[in-house]
Design a protein that fits this description.
heterotrimer; A alpha/beta (185); B mainly alpha (346); C alpha/beta (171); A: alpha/beta; Beta Polymerase, domain 2; five-stranded mixed sheet; two-stranded parallel ribbon; 4 helices; 7 strands; 22% strand; B: 346 residues; mainly alpha; two-stranded antiparallel sheet; 67% helix; 3% strand
Chain lengths: 185, 346, 171
């Protein structure tokens, strides 16, 4: 039984999409079920190690794709039946990289997070290793992890306002400076 | 010359001499470490960099004097002198030569032949640690206070084996006076060995040396100021000449310990197998005995440097374990055997 | 007769200044602030082969109170800036700063939101060393330049009127 079939077997209808690219298996799961899915993968699938957890901002990617599609549709106006069918994809993705230490298999689990609901349940209950990566994702993309024990900024300083890895944040920053007032009481 | 004038000259001389040794030792330390690490070491100030300590001194003197705002000011100022002065004072009982005859007057080359010179040295060694503790506590910094506390714990642990090792010497020679001990070490025993404390008390010597390194806060026992954990330990908050005094006191301390080692275990000013007073005039004999003592002391000073750049630092629990589980039992056994032998042979 | 020794470029004051400069220039104890790969080059400059200790730049201590030259080797993030400022403020006068490498000089390749674009905008820098990272020879050259700078200094300049007054009164 291949990994693909096993994962499909374990997840059942939680599996939204499955994509295999050059031997790397990437599955998409619904946002609300992420903890249950990962727990199932950990216990039944043997994926007992979380090697990384990170976010992706797809702002430009989907905008460009939509533009391209629109353009091609304008060029061939007579076939207008697909118009309106394509729903807009959520802007952010959070990807969990899993590893099975016993079988040495890897799996990417992807959750799409829309811009208007930037909240995910934490997986620190499953893997303590998720603590800092989740803080980093919060720091860089502003995605909040519900139930996280210590959701503070990891890399930027606490007073920093923006989330710098978002695509609409300028590379050179907005001129933020860190000022500290040492307590000399 | 009146007696007090001679005493004053002796005091000034040994004080300047101790200072000079400490100054030169800072240079020796840096050049020797460079030698051992295949470097050159400081060689820009004066010939061979010999004026390097002077350059450091000028720089430290003209640097801004910082007293941290939340430090205990009086104690902060008191710390460095309290560290350096006992080390100097211990020189007072060190017999740095036999005697010299000047103008028909016999002068003992020792500032004062205290009959309990032994206890005096031990007591001053224990006072020196106050400088560290007070400096560390007054700085109001966590690294400093940890360094100071470590210094205390270390001193308490290593004073005991040191005392035990020194007691065996007292048992052997039956006196507390350092000069008396040195005089008894002249000549040979068993026909071929020099009559030195080292040959009569090899174990005592080893215990004493280990404890002396711990007392001087030198590697491998430099835990009060270990850079990897405590920035620079008890003198983290000290800059300018106050720091200079701390660094300086360390070298003076080393000089004192080396001098004590020489006079207790290596026959002081005497050469083995040779009695210098037989073929040297009274004046030249005095000078020669002084230089013999100095050469022996210089060897032990260099040993301090040699050990520092050879061995790594102990971990704290290893330090305590060595003190309490190895040195104290060894010292007790050594003391017991020595007492037994002394009782049986006399 | 005026007290010629202390007038203008008088003998006493200039000699005292020369002596102080001689001492300071021959014992610039470094404070290693290595935050990135330039720190490795700094270690190399201190180790055998290059041996910065020849110039008296020895006794690398990690407490700013005891050091004279802050050698800032590496990238400074904006999060780190207050720490750097504080370290600089904690050093005792006189103090000098060497900025080692492109990152410390100008931010280097990291022209981003998180990197300070050169430490010159936060603390006063005496010597800039270009390079990514500079070779140990570069660091030694900067140290020599700094020694030249120290020797051209006038440490008693501010005290000069006071000293002249005191000496006049003594006369």
């Amino acid at each position: 039984m291949s990994l693909k079939d096993r994962v499909a077997d374990i997840l059942g209808k939680d599996l939204v999409a499955l994509n295999e690219f050059r031997g790397d298996l990437c599955i998409e799961v619904p946002k609300g079920r992420i903890v249950q899915v990962l727990a199932k993968l950990k216990e039944e699938g043997g994926f007992d190690f979380l090697s990384d957890l990170f976010g992706v901002d797809n702002l430009d990617l989907y905008a460009k794709a939509a533009k391209k599609k629109k353009k091609s549709q304008e060029e061939s106006e007579d076939t207008g039946e697909t118009k309106g069918k394509e729903s807009v994809q959520p802007r952010f993705e959070v990807i969990y990289l899993l590893l099975s230490l016993s079988t040495n298999e890897r799996l990417q689990v992807m959750v799409r997070v829309p811009e208007d609901d930037l909240e995910l349940p934490t997986v620190t209950g499953l893997w303590k290793a998720a603590n800092w990566p989740e803080r980093e994702v919060f720091d860089m993309f502003g995605i909040r992890f519900k139930g996280h024990p210590n959701l503070r900024r990891l890399l930027m300083w606490d007073e920093f306002q923006d989330h710098p890895l978002r695509k609409d944040y300028p590379l050179e920053g907005k001129g933020e400076e860190r000022h500290l007032n040492y307590d000399i009481a | 010359m009146a007696d007090w004038q001679i005493d004053l000259i002796k005091v000034v001389f040994i004080w300047v001499w101790a200072l000079l040794i400490a100054v030169v030792m800072t240079w020796v330390e840096r050049r020797a470490s460079a030698m051992m690490q295949d470097r050159l070491g400081p060689n820009r100030a004066g010939p061979f960099g010999l004026l390097q300590p002077l350059a450091d001194g000028i720089k430290l003197f003209t640097k801004e004097d910082i007293i941290p705002e939340r430090a205990r000011k009086i104690l902060f100022i008191l710390g460095p002198p309290l560290f350096a002065l006992p080390a100097f004072s211990a020189y007072a009982v060190v017999p740095f030569g036999d005697k010299i005859v000047l103008g028909g007057k016999e002068i003992i080359l020792q500032v004062s032949d205290v009959n309990i010179g032994f206890l005096y040295v031990l007591a001053l060694g224990a006072i020196g640690v106050y400088g560290m503790v007070i400096g560390g506590w007054a700085s109001n910094s966590k690294y400093s206070i940890l360094g100071g506390l470590r210094a205390t714990a270390q001193l308490i642990s290593y004073e005991v084996p040191m005392g035990l090792a020194l007691l065996t010497i007292v048992l052997l020679y039956g006196t507390f006076s350092l000069r008396e001990i040195v005089l008894q070490q002249q000549g040979t025993f068993l026909g071929f060995l020099p009559n030195w404390g080292f040959f009569k008390q090899p174990l005592g010597f080893i215990i004493f040396m280990v404890a002396a390194y711990a007392e001087a806060n030198r590697v491998p026992f430099d835990l009060p100021e270990c850079e990897s954990e405590l920035v620079t330990g008890y003198h983290t908050e000290y800059g300018s000449m106050r720091l200079g005094l701390y660094l300086f006191g360390e070298y003076v301390n080393m000089g004192t310990l080396a001098a004590i080692t020489v006079s207790l275990f290596f026959g002081g000013w005497g050469l083995p197998y040779v009695d210098m007073s037989r073929f040297l005039g009274p004046v030249s004999y005095g000078i020669a005995s002084f230089f013999v003592f100095f050469l022996k002391q210089a060897f032990f000073l260099f040993l301090f440097v040699w050990v520092r750049w050879t061995v790594p630092r102990f971990r704290y629990d290893q330090l305590m374990g060595l003190g309490w589980k190895a040195l104290i039992p060894l010292g007790l056994i050594n003391l017991f055997i020595t007492a037994l032998l002394v009782q049986l042979t006399t | 007769m005026k007290f010629q020794a202390i007038q203008g470029e008088g003998w006493l004051l200039t000699k005292a200044e020369q002596l102080i400069n001689w001492g300071r220039s021959r014992s610039p104890w470094p404070f290693p602030y290595g935050t990135a790969c330039c720190g490795i080059e700094l270690m190399c400059a201190l180790a055998s082969g290059y041996d910065m200790a020849r110039f008296g730049a020895e006794r690398v201590a990690f407490t700013p109170r005891q050091c004279d030259v802050l050698i800032e080797a590496g990238t400074i993030t904006k999060k780190m800036v207050p720490v750097l400022k504080r370290i600089y403020a904690q050093m005792a006068e006189p103090k000098w700063v060497i900025a080692v490498g492109a990152c410390a000089c100008s931010g280097g390749v990291f022209r981003t939101y998180s990197t300070q674009q050169g430490i010159g905008s936060v603390i006063p820098v005496d010597i800039y060393i270009p390079g990514c990272p500079p070779r140990p020879e570069g660091i030694l050259y900067a140290l020599l330049k700094l020694i030249d700078k120290i020797e051209a200094d006038h440490p008693l300049y501010k005290q000069r009127p006071k000293l002249i007054e005191a000496l006049e009164a003594y006369k």
